[in-house]
Amino acid sequence: MDNHNNLQARIQDALAAKRNLGEMSDADSVGTAGSADCGDMLRMWLKFREDEHGRRVIDRATFQTFGCETAIAVASVATELLAGKTAQEAMDLSGEELAAPLGALPPMKIHCAQLVEGALRNALEAGASVQLKKTDSLSTAIAVSELNASAGASPASPTLLENLRSGLNSSGKVKVVLKSSLQ
Ligand code: FES
Questions:
Q1: Domain boundaries of the chain, sorted by first residue
Q2: Among 14-18, 34-38, 155-159, whose mean pLDDT is lowest?
Q3: More confident residue, 140 or 70
Q4: Which region holds residue 39: left if phi is over 0, alpha if psi is between -120 and 50, else beta?
């Protein structure tokens, strides 16, 4: 079996056993990214906890996407990878590292992993802003585009579909791919 077929097989395996798909109602932060290459979008939710060493680590990560099969597969394996990582450790992960369980992606699919990386970074930045907001009186200057104001609150941000219909959609570049697997 060649590399292409190996990759396809791993993607199909990941799709058949998707992990962490869906909104997280008690998330601490949420981030969204859109791909300039294909117009697809992906949203990621993060929930943190304190580990046995007192570090604030990711407890759970979930995602939702209007994206291709590769993006879904990468998000599925990436959200598994993130559990137990600090925000900095997660921030240091490249799209390639997030997709590593699937193997090397071909050049035309690298942006699919970057979509996952972008949503993760957006969520981490939103989470960092929340942390700062709690401790820094000057934090009003911080722009928090997408976050939960507090744990337990449902995300106040628009749904992924609303995002597609509004701002990004007005660019005329967004391609909406409704995946039956997400319904
Ligand atoms: Fe758009 Fe893969 S083709 S994310």
A1: 3-171
A2: 155-159
A3: 70
A4: left
- pTM exceeds 0.70 for this model: yes
Long-range contacts of 90-95 (CB under 8 A, 24+ apart): 90/58, 90/120, 90/124, 91/120, 91/121, 91/124, 93/117, 93/120
Which distant-in-sequence residues (6+ apart) come within 8 Å of 17 by Cβ?
Answer: 76
Token pair 């949203």 is found at 43
What's the CATH fold of domain 3-171? Sufe protein. Chain: A (3.90.1010)
Can 68 be counted among the known catalytic residues?
no
**What was the pLDDT predicted at 165?**
64
Position 37 scores a pLDDT of 83
Residue 112 in contact with ligand 1 by CB distance below 6 A: yes
CA–CA separation, 65 vs 164, rounded Å? 11
pLDDT tier for residue 132 given thresholds of 50, 70 and 90: low
CA of 131 to the centre of ligand 1 (A): 32
How far is 138 from 136, CA to CA, in rounded Å? Answer: 5
173 Cα to the center of ligand 1, angstroms? 13
Whether ligand 1 lies within 6 angstroms of the CB of 99 is answered as no
Ligand 1 close to Cβ of residue 11 (< 6 A): no
